[in-house]
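Reagents: none. Just compute today. D-ribose pyranase.
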Amino acid sequence: MKKGGILNKRLNEVIASLGHMDTIVICDAGLPIPDENQRVDLAFEPGTPGQIQVLKAVLNEVVVEKVIMAEESKKVSPEMHEEILKLLGDKEIEYVPHTEFKERSKKSKAIIRTGEFTPYSNVMLVCGCAY
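Predicted 3D structure written out:
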């Protein structure tokens, strides 16, 4: 049995497959996920698991060199936006319109769906290199 960290088998498989410059999306329950994308559906009920909880766990496992977020997050969900920024520390952040975020997410290695109901709380992580 694994000692700790992320226990979800599917999510562990996705994380282990990531390479430099691959992207993964951690999204709220409402983001449309194209059938072509790998989907890791963690949503259980509204709010469970939450965006922050999942983001924190993934950040502990993945080298991230850049984060992409919807421009709208700053105005529509400022509290969530601030919580996300606290977790990200000094990582580079690129803001794009939500429509562009959805288009870019189609090219992600996987989309991880949470039970989050806060609008525009989605984040795209651009993987870095550990060496």
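The chain has five helices and six strands.
Action item: order primers for follow-up constructs.
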